[in-house]
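Why run this: before we spend reagent on co-expression, it is cheaper to look at a predicted model of the complex and decide which construct boundaries make sense. The entries below are exactly what would go into the expression plan.
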Amino acid sequence: MLEKVDLNKIMDREDYKKEFDNLSIELGALQREARDLKLPIIIVFDGFEAAGKGTLINKLMLPLDPRGYDVIKRFECPSETDNRPYFYKFWKTIPKRGDISIVNESWYKALLSDRVLKKTSPEIVEYLFDEILSFEGQLVADGYLIVKFFLYISEEEQKDRLKKLKKNKDESWRVTDDVLKLHKKYKKFLDAAETVFEKTDTAFAPWTIIEATDKRYATIKIFKTLIEAIKFKIKAIKEKEELPSFENFYPVNELSSLSKIDLNKSLTYEEYIEKLHPLQREIHDLQYRLWKERVPVIVAFEGWDAAGKGGSIKRLTEAMDPRGYTVIPIGAPNEYELAHHYLWRFWQNVPEKGNIAIFDRTWYGRVLVERVEKLCKDFDWQRAYGEIKQMEKQFTNFGIVLLKFWLHIDKKTQLERFEEREKNPFKHWKITEDDWRNRSKWDDYLPAVEEMLIRTSTAEAPWNIIEANDKYFARIKVLETFVNKIKEKLN
Amino acid sequence: MLEKVDLNKIMDREDYKKEFDNLSIELGALQREARDLKLPIIIVFDGFEAAGKGTLINKLMLPLDPRGYDVIKRFECPSETDNRPYFYKFWKTIPKRGDISIVNESWYKALLSDRVLKKTSPEIVEYLFDEILSFEGQLVADGYLIVKFFLYISEEEQKDRLKKLKKNKDESWRVTDDVLKLHKKYKKFLDAAETVFEKTDTAFAPWTIIEATDKRYATIKIFKTLIEAIKFKIKAIKEKEELPSFENFYPVNELSSLSKIDLNKSLTYEEYIEKLHPLQREIHDLQYRLWKERVPVIVAFEGWDAAGKGGSIKRLTEAMDPRGYTVIPIGAPNEYELAHHYLWRFWQNVPEKGNIAIFDRTWYGRVLVERVEKLCKDFDWQRAYGEIKQMEKQFTNFGIVLLKFWLHIDKKTQLERFEEREKNPFKHWKITEDDWRNRSKWDDYLPAVEEMLIRTSTAEAPWNIIEANDKYFARIKVLETFVNKIKEKLN
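The model came back. Tokens follow.
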């Protein structure tokens, strides 16, 4: 594909000046229209060393209102991001609806320069392409516009530019060993790029190759491409074209066996205490081993209101070192979270290697409360099963131990607990109008729960259903499941 | 002070059990009340190694609703924070109103363990105490409650505990070389602690020494102290006691010479272009030198609406590498920003070493729009002069070059530009109702501006007043001032 590109295209100063001013005005206007339409835009710049990324990005910024865009630079903190799944840092920087992110060092780095420099391990390459497709696919499905530019110059041109840079005392520092290596491996980089186009030049996020020999020509092509893309998207929004889901949704007939679960399982207080303390001591030790062996863990709690999530979490963390775990309570998203993709706030809380993140309610809200309360379109929650599995796959790919608990009780038990809370002055605050409203929708929730359990139980991250009518039994089963799963991983 | 402390206090299991349960219930209730009152709470834990920080913090967390607190752990990213003023990372983690932060590795580390281990350079120690006082003072003045615990054990006790830890195969790793060094230097640590108490045991943020030999005793004392502190603060809030400002405010009589400024200075287009391009080339080179020599820069733009801030910023950045600068447009704070101290959002944007942060409007909004529009109490903006100077001092202490511009035009020029914007279809969006409303308050803004210029022009960070009736002249003066100031710093 690339060899067919004509790298000799140029543009003279006069044509450039004229075009640039008009395109700038048009782009500025489009940015404001996109903001009013709450259209989030991601612009990716990648390509050969010395192809002029910096200059071209700066040109692009000039007509833009700084109130609406952000340039994603070299990520400050490898020590932080290297300890988390690859896409953590990119999720962190997606723009909120109406804003623009210009990504200078994108997720393609690992498959271009880093791959050529052998900084990307082969086993990552294997699944990185899938992760890129799901990342871009999820954003586009959520209404994001992604425009990807690849800056292309010839080997000769690169050679000349590096020579010039080396001569300039203020810029010579930019010609690092890596840059020189990449120049020597120009052909390898070209091959890597071909592979990238082959696998990631999708309909929902296509690549545009920019002939970057002549800066003026490149600038104008970037402006025109971007303007066309934004116009196209705005048109689609105004015509309310719905984007196709990339997981074909099919209704689940065979329901899970929640009904068949034996909720009578129970423990006496004595049995409970007898099991509790040894388990907590074991958890205390396991936490250190997780920390020492740098294994990250996510524990996800879902369940009916008053099923005992809080109590289980308390018993789980009681013997842990607070420096190694975090409890993340998930409530209704705030204004700022709503302005992002719904998975964004969960990516923020991915634990670093050796740490434990405990979610009190999770991303499954999308297919539970948001589905039942109609807080999102059918299209959105139907798509979510696939998106959630993709996200969890990225977690487990990275080596995160992902434990998912569904705390199950029956309607009668919930009623008793609600009433007990209302009576007890110290628990009264725990019960709200919402709880009663949710309860009234029990029968709408049930099929949503069962569908969730079926669709999202995977080999790497199965659901653990906890019989929770008896709190003692439930807590011990949660702790035992945790201990066994962690031991399994550590041995 | 410390030698007088009795470290033999203990508590038996029964008393403990009883007290703990009651105090837990009380603390839980207080947390909810504090949240309703939007009271932000910061709890600092410091003290000797092996004094039981982790365990005691965990005990404190158990009765708390996780929806309302966060444990600030060892900061993940030294590479990021070491490149910024010391308090950057702490500002990042202050709780929003109604929340609690439990700080595990606090700002006192630099003056305790790090100082004993000679990791803190003497010249930092000199001004660190001032920075701590202004940090805590600013937060308390803004309604934060700060509770500081120092966990105290004897040299003997520490010795025994470290021995036990070493024996335990799962915990021996915690006994690092630093920990052993700190044990050997027990006396030095004690002296450092004495100095810390001497200088930072203030009325607005006092220290509580916790005899930590007996965990039960320590837990109860921590709970009781915290409960008393929160109750006291809640009482104060309900009685609307206003906290004393720590800068005595005096009105400024002698006004600045804004009126005497010659706004007729101007340049022809030819003169402008002739000066512009060489200046931009110089800025391009200076940016690389700043980057190479790791010098951080903050450029702060204030001025009347339509004074030409945007145009100056554009000319300033046109020749810069986007990877090295950021433009931070400051508008009305959003809901989330309002939930923090007003300086919080600016601290978020402090540039790392070698980078340039350009603020389009700044923290001076506190003493301009917020004062004139009565968006905060007189007490708040009056206090702000001192707070802003303290913040800027921390910037310059760290080596940040801080450039402050006031772009000055007269009322007539503003009117012409407003009208021009309304006529011009490409600038129309730039003019809003707000602009006209602000303009009508010109005469209220003038004294606020003059007072700001007088009160906040310091030796390290003076105001540069730019005569901006003529755009060409203004832009060139901004660029020249920038170039000269940076050269001065680099040579």
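The first strand of chain B starts at residue 41 and ends at 47. Strands of chain B lie at 41-47, 69-72, 100-103, 145-152, 207-211, 297-303, 325-329, 356-360, 401-408, 463-467. Bring this page to Monday's planning discussion.
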